[in-house]
Design a protein that fits this description.
single chain; 222 residues; alpha/beta; nine-stranded mixed beta sheet; two-stranded parallel ribbon; 30% helix
Length: 222
């Protein structure tokens, strides 16, 4: 299979929009999109506390091969998040220290792998947001092919180049670029609602009161 890069053109989110998105938890973003768009729950930050926010550059690999990952992290632009459709294969690492180091040096926004990575000690030191299913010592093969900047199924969610990738310790959410403005407006409204809920709960209100949960049906004792 050849290694192919597809030429794509998509709008860039503004610095202001990305700054607003960076404060939105993945759970709120998913809620704003009808509680959808969440990747496989096993895809998590490789270092606790990591957050990721940026537009996607997609990679589709041949199973166990990371040639296209090397191309992608060399071609992506500052702030981009390289998202790798590794087919969920978790016994071969598709990225490690050198891939992450390249991402860091080129000021990318992070790396998301539907599969495994390795060199966790070095990844912790580099500080670049890396999300994956886990870590494994076994390394990848090279030069069996792949594609870049195509629609890709990553963690069970379709991702187009330019879609917003938002991740934290709860997982990774994909915001389709076409709906990013509307989803941001809805997300900020949900955050404001949650702020008010917090105030009510701290003031002594119950969740039943705050959320308007229907009353219990009382069943008489026999």
């Amino acid at each position: 299979m050849a290694m192919q890069r597809y030429l794509v053109d998509y709008p860039r989110l503004t610095t202001d929009a990305l700054a607003k998105w960076s404060s939105v938890p993945s759970s709120v973003a998913s809620d704003a999109m009808n509680r959808c768009q969440s990747m496989d729950s096993r895809i998590k930050p490789m270092v606790p506390g990591m957050r990721i926010c940026g537009q996607a550059r997609t990679v589709v690999t041949m199973p166990g091969d990371n040639s296209m990952v090397h191309h992608a992290v060399s071609l992506a632009e500052p702030g981009d998040v390289v998202v790798v459709a590794g087919g969920g294969l978790d016994d071969v690492a598709l990225a490690g220290e050198w891939v992450v180091r390249c991402c860091k040096r080129r000021a990318l926004g992070g790396l998301v792998v539907d599969g495994s990575v390795r060199d966790l000690h070095e990844i912790r030191g580099l500080g670049l947001p890396v999300f994956a299913k886990g870590a494994v010592a076994r390394g990848p093969h090279k030069n069996f092919g792949g594609k870049m900047d195509v629609i890709a199924a990553i963690g069970g969610v379709p991702v187009n180049p330019g879609d917003l990738i938002l991740g934290d310790e709860d997982g990774v959410v994909v915001v389709p670029l076409a709906f990013a403005d509307a989803a941001l407006t809805q997300s900020l409204a949900l955050l404001e609602r949650e702020r008010k809920w917090t105030e009510q709960i701290e003031a002594g209100a119950t969740l039943v009161d705050v959320l308007g949960v229907p009353p219990l049906e009382i069943v008489p004792a026999d």
